């Protein structure tokens, strides 16, 4: 009896030990999950959009060069909405990088008179700096031609923009892109035509497709202006659609186009390009878009 009882106790001890061993494996090893009380939280994924990039390159046309913002018929890059150092403008670069950082890590490759067809070349220059953010504002000169028939076709506008983004993405896969909409040229005509000086300057050949014969209100003049305006809207649709296909691209949602600017935001030398005040408003729009939570 004692032998049988001893043997039973041994068998029971082995069974208990085995059970505890199995339980131990379930708690800390094998394929079973750890108890919820000790699980480590999963790390948050790195966001695709960095709201505080450390460098910036700007591409585009005369607006980004600050043309006619400071002096007649001359670029004024210090007043640029994108990269300028002017305290009156408080550019996007200054807002994002600080004044010293903007001076060291922002670059302006925009060219007065540039059209969308020129953007690939500007992108090729910009990527050499390896910026974390590239700003794009171009398209007004594609609509501002001698006549509406000379405007850049929408298909060409799209192809050149797509080519530009492909080149950028190939060189800098993680670079971010801010795309500004083309300004409302018909509103520019409506606001600027109240100035006799502005209309006189426009006669020198500034955006004749929209601003030519500024006082004409006949059906032919209205058709011409509406045709140009429709083309601007088509350009903005292209910018929105192409940008939407790139997860690291942000379009301003037509904010520049929709902004209800007045003569205070227009250059007093040509009533076409943004004044210093107008450049500051563009900087505000850009900063708001770049730093916003994902739209």
From TrEMBL:
Region entry Disordered, spans: 30-52
InterPro entries: GDSL, PLB1, SGNH_hydro_sf
Domain of life: Bacteria
Alphabetized GO MF terms: phospholipase activity
Keywords associated with the record: Lipoprotein, Signal
Pfam families: Lipase_GDSL
Signal peptide range: 1-27
Name of this protein: Lipoprotein
Species assigned in the record: Streptomyces azureus
């Amino acid at each position: 009896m004692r032998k049988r009882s001893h043997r039973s106790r041994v068998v029971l001890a082995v069974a208990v030990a085995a059970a505890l061993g199995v339980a131990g494996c379930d708690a800390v090893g094998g394929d079973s999950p750890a108890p919820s009380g000790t699980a480590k939280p999963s790390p948050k994924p790195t966001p695709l959009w960095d709201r505080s990039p450390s460098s910036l390159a700007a591409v585009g046309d005369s607006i980004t060069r600050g043309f006619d913002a400071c002096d007649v018929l001359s670029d004024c890059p210090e007043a640029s909405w994108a990269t300028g150092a002017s305290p009156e403008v408080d550019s996007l670069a200054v807002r994002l990088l600080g004044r010293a950082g903007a001076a060291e890590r922002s670059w302006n490759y925009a060219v007065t008179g540039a059209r969308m067809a020129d953007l690939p070349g500007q992108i090729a220059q910009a990527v050499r700096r390896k910026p974390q953010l590239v700003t794009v504002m171009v398209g007004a000169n594609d609509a501002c031609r001698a006549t509406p028939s000379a405007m850049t076709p929408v298909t060409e506008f799209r192809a050149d923009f797509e080519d530009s983004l492909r080149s950028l993405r190939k060189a800098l896969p993680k670079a971010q892109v801010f795309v500004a909409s083309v300004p409302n040229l018909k509103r520019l005509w409506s606001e600027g035509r109240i100035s006799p000086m502005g209309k006189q300057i426009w006669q020198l050949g500034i955006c004749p497709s929209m601003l030519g014969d500024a006082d004409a209100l006949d059906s032919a003049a209205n058709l011409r202006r509406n045709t140009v305006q429709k083309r601007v809207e088509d350009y903005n649709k292209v910018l929105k659609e192409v940008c939407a296909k790139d997860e690291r691209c942000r379009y301003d949602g037509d904010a520049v186009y929709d902004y209800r600017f007045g003569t205070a935001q227009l250059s007093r030398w040509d009533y076409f390009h943004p004044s210093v005040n107008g450049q500051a408003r563009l900087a505000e729009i850009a900063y708001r878009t770049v730093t916003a939570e994902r739209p």
